[in-house]
Fold each of these.
Amino acid sequence: MTRDGTSTSHYDFDLPVDRIAQQPTARRGDSRLMVINRSTGEISHKQFSDIEQLMPAGDAIVLNTTRVFRARLLGIRENGTPAEVLLLRPLEDSTWEAMVHPGGKLKPGRTVHIADDLEVEIVSTTERRTRVVRLNTSTPVDQAIEKHGHVPLPPYITRADQPADVERYQTVYATESGSVAAPTAGLHFTSEILDALAAKGVRRADLILHVGAGTFKPVDTENPADHVMHEESYSLPARAAEVLNETRKAGGKIWAVGTTSVRTLESAIGEDGVFREKSGETRIFIRPPYEFRAVDRLITNFHLPRSTLVMLVAAFAGYDLTMQAYQEAVAERYRLYSYGDAMAIL
């Protein structure tokens, strides 16, 4: 069978469980960096701190400044058994869309006791089987979430969240709260690395895409076109659009940090190839074959098999080269996924 990345089963591959990073590196920026050259097919191995050497003056780096909030609420049901509520996004009338566990037990009308000053009321079930919930609290809702919520680490990190995760599962440039998962390619950057890039003449463009839980959902249809893509809200500010247009006009390259930045840029660029201020929701599903119009370089982490994220990488780097890179990552004992190592695709 010829594999070209157009079927979901083409993205089945074995990644050893012991390579899934359960903790971040001791210091931010100490991770490894795989460098993939699309023109030559060469794969080389560096440290993430070498990223400055790869970016010439006049290029632009695009950062997603979303902030992860403490979206995971742990409590008990009326009968005293454990329950979990993962807040996804605020709705109207002080309600939220949420995922709940155990799903079969938490029907409308049920409540989950989180703390003396916080209970979650199950209001209704949505078409996609998530819940609409109401947070009943004697304090402002944001304060109650911050006080009682847990860092929403991804499901493949099997330990409980720890105090260190509050800082480490967050980029150093995070500003606006709204994500239930970190834009993990950005976790490698330190303020010192960003300052060095700026001093070198690499321009910076900030945007926002609030990451939803659907980012971890595997594609379970053999034809990726049948996969229902989750929506995520984004915003490309006018200043960022100006920087990107000026960079392109001067012949510089645009570096997207993370798949979330890619999805935002490819959603926001105009049909004429010009960036303009824009905000909204995107369901863009980037997979082979795809012609990129907004991104020239990509910094990303290693992603799950059968995920929309690894399909995006394959669309950018080429299917064969992407699969080769993943095989080499396993052979070279790279650390994988959110707290793992990075790759730069040139």
Note: The radius of gyration is 20 Å.
Amino acid sequence: MSEAVEQALELIRQNRPESVDRALSLLQNTVYSFSMKVCGHQQDAEDTMQDVLLKSLPHLAKFDNPKALTVWLYKTAHNRCISSRRGNKNSPAQNLSLDELIPSRYELQKVLRSPGPDPEEALLSGEGAAQLKQAIMAVPLQYRMVLVLHDMEELGTEEVAKILGMREGTVRVRLHRARLFLRRRLSETEEGGPAIIPYLHAAADEEAEAPLRCRQLFAALSDYMDGVIDDVMCDKMDRHLRDCKPCQAFLASLENAVAQCRLYAPHCDAARAEALRQELLPMYAQAIAALAKAERPYD
């Protein structure tokens, strides 16, 4: 659940002008940040922020728990982002194959020799932040939505499933493939080229694929990372990781990629956000008055 949304609901319940202003500020940042991560365009993010906040005004005081508000807010923002997304709106969805994302033996050895950068250090420079944004935007949209909601907005699998209208199992599958894709794109950026070393000799093809036991581990790696795997499989993966240094390095690089995207937090222009709140506050007061009148029609 989003802590910002939880705080906003507590402030809304106080029903004071300053607390409402602070609540709207938290919701603004939440919607804008989510929209930038999904759309990648400032104007689209600002338009989504304004539209979603306007739609929320008649409903904010009616929510009795932050989880319901979280799902409503993100679902509304998700729908607005989809309808306003620039670029190839009509392009077919791109499906990511797990087989294509599982690293080869060559890539595992390369990861073992080249540990990734510290996530915070990677984002200190403008170039690092720009590269991360490019990598996130390269993730196909249906996978990016899950990645943003789960790893960047830090929502649970159940909440993501409700927002996107899909089964929790589908969320887990898309999340894992999105993470693998993002890790590969970040590796390519760090190394200045494709992460997989091209095969120069036909004989090398026999050694190209990772061992079967490693491939089985990669298929469940996100569930292992998030602690949502059954005990038997967890024990099996623990034993494998203890004995397989390339897989240890790959798991570390995947965790590094997730840590980097969690640090990416775009913020709306403060003056623009303030101007919008000044427009919204009177509208919110009118919505509250209308709600009170509806509850006491004969007063």
Note: Residues 270-295 form the longest helix (26 residues).
Amino acid sequence: MSKKPEWFKGIFPALVTPFTKDDRVDEAAYRELIRYVLPHVNGIVPCGTTGEFVYMLEDERKRAIEIALDEVNGRVPVVAGTAYPSTRETVKMTAWARDAGVTAALVAAPYYLKPSFNEVYDHYDALNKLGVPLILYNIPQCAGTHYQWWTTEGMAYLDNVVGIKDSSGDMPYLMAVFEKVRGKIGIFTGHDEIVPAALAMGADGAILASANVIPDVWQTIYKAVLSGDLATAQTLMARIQRFVRILARQGPTQAVKEALQLLGLPIGDSRHPMIKGDAFRREDYEEVRGVLEELGKIPPRPMTYHLYAGAPGVQGQFPKPPAAPSEVRDMTLLVGEGFAGPPFSELAHVDLLIGRKDGPVGKAIERALAEPRPGHELRIVFERPRTLLVPTVTVRTKKQAEMVYEHAAGGVIMALEALVKDGTLPAALLDDIVLIANVFVHPGASNRWRVRINNFKAMKAATRKALEGRPTLDELIAEKESARHPFRYAP
């Protein structure tokens, strides 16, 4: 007999919880986020993992659920996260959520002390007596307890268990779940990287962190798989894979919040111990921005460039977030930095100077070219804008020379071509500015393509950061506790 409810299907965002600067739940921002996702989703999930429920007080969790219920106003199901480490607290929160009017409760396995499978079963058996629809939540990377198929099968037969969300990313486990309980309860994936595969195998939907940011893309993928159009699903998944990989592997809370800020939604930051620039790294930020630009989520916006203070402005535009500046007031000397990997031996680090051809950067290029530097030979690698490549590490072998002057330089050239094409470097400026790219290539580098693509990413990021004045003073202060040397952790 099937207990799978008709409403439990489609795309449900695992909502982030916005916080104000003084660390309160930001009701206005929460409502704005819900209004943003609502046209594209089949339900919402407040107070899940991405919602930082483990960092919230009981009253805050209740308020977040109340806001979600009020804002949705019955238009889609509201599945509330009600998990606590103990059965007593979980029963209490789940009973409250039931009385508040949630459609169902999403309950992660008891975490921290890693109970046995019998104890996990007894935990859900206690919740089953409340009469509220229950969705099992398998997330071993956080809870520490990984369901087994036989445990899931047993819990699926509890009267009020109507579904499961599996965030493990463990496809063999998910296949066993399909074998044992497909049709009896709803089966959702919560691992963003495997959504098309899970849907193709028969999953009813997905509860996703990334659906905060790209709910429309996920809805298109869901409908494509449902209609048998796997080609569309595959194409879209390839376009968003970098983004969802970062969320799945670097921690979704800060990543999703910064992605939403790139779109102009005022979501704030994660609560401590999560901090800017650590689990979600600055190179990840640039990757996420790139994906959102490619999807058209960050459209071109105007930028006015002044070669020097008071000079007539050159008009241009390129894809940038709403919060980015709309003017470069003085291009006499701009500084940018970019970092990209993996892997370790092929990572790229670019220190960049941009300036007027007739200014200090232009003069530095002419002087440097006139002075021989054995082992650090300089190369002009691009003409418009004129760009000097400076190797950071002494070049000692033929292989190192190939890596620096062919593949790293190739990445720099790719970046400059892209920046000219998308308008970041407008045509009217190309003869008036020059660049110096100080490029690091590890002496042990061997993977030519990764050297090239990592230098492309690092050069593009360095240029954007120079023009946009990033990092700002506020960003530096906010991230001072997460500063790390890329090669050696030294607190």
Note: The chain has a mean pLDDT of 94.
Amino acid sequence: MLRQIARPIIGIILLSSLLLASVTDTKTDQHPVAARHSRAAAKPAAIVPKVFPYTVYTHTLANGLHVVIIPTSEFKDMATYATAVFAGSRNETEHGKTGLAHLFEHEMFLHEYNGVAEGYSAQMRALGTDNNAFTDYDMTFFHPTTFTSNLVGPVTKGAGTHPGVIELEASRFQNLTIERKAFEVEAGAVLGEYRRTFSDPAEKMIEVLSEKAFPGHPYGHTVMGYQDDVENMPQAWDAAWDFYHRYYRPNSVAVIVVGDVEPEELLPPIEKAYAGWKPATKPGIPPAADLKAEVKVHVAWGAEVAPRVMVGYHTPAARPGSKETAVGQIVRELLVSPSAPLYQKLRYRKQTVTDLSLAADPMSTDPHWLLLDSELTLDRFHRDGVKYAADVQQDMITGIEELKTFSKQPNAAKTLEVVRDRVHNDLLAQLDSTVDIATIFASYYRFGYDPQAIDKAMAAIQALTPADVDAYAAKYFTRNRRVIATLWQDKTENKQQEEK
């Protein structure tokens, strides 16, 4: 699965469509970690955060693999054994070789364990594991959830024994091998997913706008990749394996275990399973170009749909704990929450949109964007035409740029206090499963491998003043940093097709 249009979770781009990659016959050689690599594991370091409600145990292996263990005893007998690969579509730097991060999310489920056809997935099913993954711009995240007793093998189930989840995950991340035919079949399935994804008008707008807004940077394509690259994926064997061998390496990965576990008992088998994994040099990412003028695109849709208008602004790279990132994380509440002035104006006072939401927020590794998405009413568009869309667009621009004088708004200090508390409480409310805890933690941890990143981010948010919002908006919500996309049916195009 991929994560595309944002459903923000505390300012992080998180989508939740789950797609379990199909399992196809594969063939691979199994290379268990040799005994010479095993050694007594060091005691994990314990960190007790103030906001994040769990003690975090960390250890870094000699090969650079980060191991994070977060005991959560209230989820009795359950654990999520997550692997965060800190590479996503941002790491696809060449046109002709995009979409590979998402492709390998799929391909990883094709791993054969011990030379048995469908071995990896069959073993996971035998353990009763809920096994899923997602790909984003900056991270690919695998998050099997199972019983704690299944982590370390051998595991007895009925009359048989099975390897544990640690062994199974270590096997596919270090020794993945896939027959070419299986690879090609799965690559073809990704094309079907691409077509489904971009049959959504909002997704198509983001795809078209991205290429114009980020020239020369990999944020210029979506997580799925450029369409021609996706269509060519069955022939991308060599490029795909090059991506895998570069980024599926211990120094680009963190194992994050959340659940009813004992860190000192769990670390030795993890260290033993991954000690032989070799690191690799990480390729560089080209810097984002500074735009000198507003970017506008229009998508002519072939069918009658509700018109849409997107307005966004280029924003700085996220660094949890910094003042600018803190403002970026609360902007959603100030713009599109039901109590926000812009939302109230468009949805209720003027009733010009049926929905106003955040399509993407600024929480990205490199400078990215804040992007608002509005859906208009079809009946009114039939009556008032393009002028109606232009009025909504201008209201969105005005509402966003009014944050330059946020401190002068009535009750600005009180509003900010409420927003700060809401962000803090929302964070805690979302930590309601081992999967969610692992996902949210990883989404912050990827910034500098900092186990206290969540605490630092929340502390920076609590320290914000109305003047900080003013300063951020004045710096980043300017015309030369603005991006705009519109979409509605092109009836002229439809008529030409009918005449043919």
Note: The first helix runs from residue 100 to 107.
